[in-house]
Amino acid sequence: MVSSTTLATLLSGLVVPVFVQADPAASSLPDDVLPAANLTSDPIDREITTVEIPLDALPSLNNTSASGETANISYFPIEGLKEPLAVVYGDVILSTVPELLNQASNSNNSESKRALSIFRSGNVWPNGVVKYKWRSESAKNSGRLEAWTEATKRWTDLLPWLQFEEYPVSENLEEDILTLVDTTGQYACFSPIGQQWYGQMMLDDACGGAGTYTHELGHTLGLYHEQQRPDRDDYIIINCENVWDSSDGSPAVCGPDWCSGYGCNFYKLDPSVADWSGPYDSLSLMHYSPYEFAKSSGPAIEARPGVPTPQPHEFPTILDANRVCELYADQCTGVCGNGIIEPGEDCDDGNNFDGDGCSANCKTQRSCDVNICEPWRADSCHITTSCTALGGATQNGQFNHMCACRHGYKASKDNDPSLQVRLPWAHQKNRVFVRAGFSCDVLCDDWQLGTESCKEVQEEPACY
Ligand SMILES: [Zn+2]
């Protein structure tokens, strides 16, 4: 048995960063899990077809493994408002099926080549305004309106400058307005990438609710799947033998030079397709989770050692929001939740949860009378938190613990290490820690997120 005094001494000697970060309420999660994560085979036997189309039709999708002037692409059809739509990568609407087949049949006729709709140039939404409408009033039923509203909020909480502009209900497809179409029993939702001509988003009553809708909106805003990044093999392993078989029983083929069936959901994209800069984010909203499209034999995706396991689609990560911000650079005034107070934000405590120091939309800061580092206080809302277990910090000076500033801030223009230091812990390298009695109210010289931030403050080996 360890006495309480001994335990306190042991605890106080531990240098354990304790960062107070509320998690989303668990009760809000169960409805949001993509059903595919729980299915061990294709529930409606979608027929996946591979066609050969000219590279010119896919100007930004020309995989380097394709030879000559054509590339193979696998799709399955879903019902659209006017014509059937061709889906690739599991949930991405590429074009209409006739449009795709027209490309395929003309693969040797250069004069008829025309880029498919999805790849209209610069297909982000002008001015960061997503124009949308429902196909009918009844399309909003079965929880679709609630899930859509929640999904848009999950994005605008992070990106307050982003706008969703609703237009009157109409069955007609409009060139520049996304039409929200209700489907039933598809076990999946589908979206184009970016603004598509006469675009449609298919919202199913059984596709996973707000979490899946949020993922589809990621596509609509212009994001691809994270697991299709060219560098993904450094972070994850695709277990193709565990991927769903095709409806005819043939096994999936996952590339790299060739894919078929559901293996094409894990097709690695060419570096030229998009700007893949920035760290690989296995926790991205746009990353398939291990058991999506997986048979009962095991996970389709496995994280390599040290890489966080991908999770079911719920909320955008800060990295997801950063990518959207880069796509809409002219509109983006900041990312709420990155820990940096940017124009239009009243606060930013490094997360997107309500009920803590700063609201999910960075507009309301909880009132707080603590504005200097008091590491012995659990309620240190201005200073992010203490760098030690709170139980180990004492007010009598026995232990000189420090407080972590929010990202990008430091205590003083004087970079004297007796006032403030940086500490070499994983994920905290760009944070400044200050001594008790000081306030983190000075922006670092380079206050952007990243390991280069606040480098003028000396790094020390440990908290002291
Ligand atoms: Zn997707």
Automatic annotation (TrEMBL):
<keyword id="KW-0862">Zinc</keyword>
<keyword id="KW-1015">Disulfide bond</keyword>
<keyword id="KW-0479">Metal-binding</keyword>
<keyword id="KW-0732">Signal</keyword>
<dbReference type="Pfam" id="PF13948">
    <property type="entry name" value="DUF4215"/>
</dbReference>
<dbReference type="InterPro" id="IPR024079">
    <property type="entry name" value="MetalloPept_cat_dom_sf"/>
</dbReference>
<feature type="active site">
    <location>
        <position position="216"/>
    </location>
</feature>
<feature type="binding site">
    <location>
        <position position="215"/>
    </location>
    <ligand>
        <name>Zn(2+)</name>
    </ligand>
</feature>
<feature type="signal peptide">
    <location>
        <begin position="1"/>
        <end position="22"/>
    </location>
</feature>
<dbReference type="GO" id="GO:0008270">
    <property type="term" value="F:zinc ion binding"/>
</dbReference>
<dbReference type="GO" id="GO:0004222">
    <property type="term" value="F:metalloendopeptidase activity"/>
</dbReference>
<feature type="binding site">
    <location>
        <position position="219"/>
    </location>
    <ligand>
        <name>Zn(2+)</name>
    </ligand>
</feature>
<keyword id="KW-0482">Metalloprotease</keyword>
<dbReference type="InterPro" id="IPR001506">
    <property type="entry name" value="Peptidase_M12A"/>
</dbReference>
<keyword id="KW-0677">Repeat</keyword>
<keyword id="KW-0378">Hydrolase</keyword>
<dbReference type="GO" id="GO:0006508">
    <property type="term" value="P:proteolysis"/>
</dbReference>
<keyword id="KW-0645">Protease</keyword>
<feature type="domain" description="Peptidase M12A">
    <location>
        <begin position="114"/>
        <end position="333"/>
    </location>
</feature>
<protein>
    <recommendedName>
        <fullName>Metalloendopeptidase</fullName>
        <ecNumber>3.4.24.-</ecNumber>
    </recommendedName>
</protein>
<dbReference type="InterPro" id="IPR006026">
    <property type="entry name" value="Peptidase_Metallo"/>
</dbReference>
<dbReference type="InterPro" id="IPR011936">
    <property type="entry name" value="Myxo_disulph_rpt"/>
</dbReference>
<feature type="binding site">
    <location>
        <position position="225"/>
    </location>
    <ligand>
        <name>Zn(2+)</name>
    </ligand>
</feature>
<dbReference type="Pfam" id="PF01400">
    <property type="entry name" value="Astacin"/>
</dbReference>
